[in-house]
Amino acid sequence: VFADEHAARALPGLLAALGAARCRPLEGGEELKQLGRIGELLRWLSETGAERGDPVVAFGGGTVGDAAGFVAAVYLRGVPFVQVPTTWLAQVDSALGGKVGVNLPGAKNAVGAFWPPVAVIADVAALRHLPRSAAKDGMVESLKAALIGDPALWTLIEERGEAALGEDEAARYAIVERAARVKLTIADRDPTETGERRQLNLGHTLGHALEVESSFRLPHGEAVALGLRAVANLAAMRGAERGLAERIEALLDALAFPRHRTFQAEAVRRALLTDKKRSRGRLRWLLPVEVGRVQEVDDVSEHEVDGMLRHVSAP
Ligand SMILES: NC(=O)c1ccc[n+]([C@@H]2O[C@H](COP(=O)([O-])OP(=O)(O)OC[C@H]3O[C@@H](n4cnc5c(N)ncnc54)[C@H](O)[C@@H]3O)[C@@H](O)[C@H]2O)c1
Ligand SMILES: [Zn+2]
Prior knowledge:
Layout lengths: L1 E3 H6 L1 H6 L6 E3 L8 H13 L8 E5 L1 H13 L6 E5 L2 H7 L4 E6 L2 E8 L4 E2 L11 H18 L1 H15 L3 H21 L14 H10 L6 H18 L6 H11 L10 H9 L11 E6 L2 E5 L4 H11 L3
Parallel strand pairs: 1-2, 1-3, 3-4, 4-7
Antiparallel strand pairs: 5-6, 8-9
Helix pairs in contact: 5-6, 5-8, 6-7, 6-8, 6-10, 7-8, 9-10, 9-12, 10-11, 10-13
The structure holds nicotinamide-adenine-dinucleotide and zinc ion.
């Protein structure tokens, strides 16, 4: 078991119940997702005598899941992998769908594998003491899932999203459960991301470029929220369902996601140009069409990109 220390404190019972003979505490966070750290984790497995049938368990957020999953994919050419996601984002997104991997300097998730877990054990009780920023990262992915494929989830977040970010564990459970289903359904239909699964990038094209521009100081949830505002605005210009953009912006406002940010537009455009999800030089964008349906387009003009940047840029 590779266990995030915060997660171990949040869920001591579950960690104990795993009955793991060997547990290696870790500090979660992006620093874990480096090849040097992977070498360290692999050596630990080897030194403790882990064998081919022994499962590797990731007990923590997305960073522990991605790193431990990568270790599981390559140790002895692959051992069984179990995910115990303990952050909101990991429970609705990163622990599902089988992608694992680490970063290269300057290139996030550039090295990795598809290594689906044999089991995912998620307990929403883990989210009780999550820092607010981490909770909001998970909330945005849930909202994204709703826009892609679950109108009832959207209504649920409109009605109970604020409560779910507070003390209402039942609301949190209901949202996490539905959002996880959206991701699972799409990932199951397109496990290696050749088509439909790209929809999960909704809000992430501009969101990721804003993160790069900020040298990853901008929290992921805020970046994606700005990305969602921008594509909602573009979709409205291109004739999406009336009122959709207003509805998206109103919900993001209600959940206290910022409307604007100060950034260097040129650096954001550069980051967009190096986006690894380009195809034949063209950047793909996902636009919300109605709640529960998105459309992929690759004909967004520079003028339209400028419009999106203006839309989220601080006045
Ligand atoms: N593999 C995929 O398909 C996929 C999809 C989306 C994101 N990701 C990756 O996920 C990562 C982000 O994951 P994350 O947001 O979970 O970040 P994280 O793993 O860094 O966790 C965020 C923080 O919460 C702490 N924490 C974990 N569990 C806790 C708990 N129960 N209570 C209190 N604190 C707790 C961690 O120690 C950490 O400080 C990124 O590296 C991203 O690239 C992967
Ligand atoms: Zn995301």
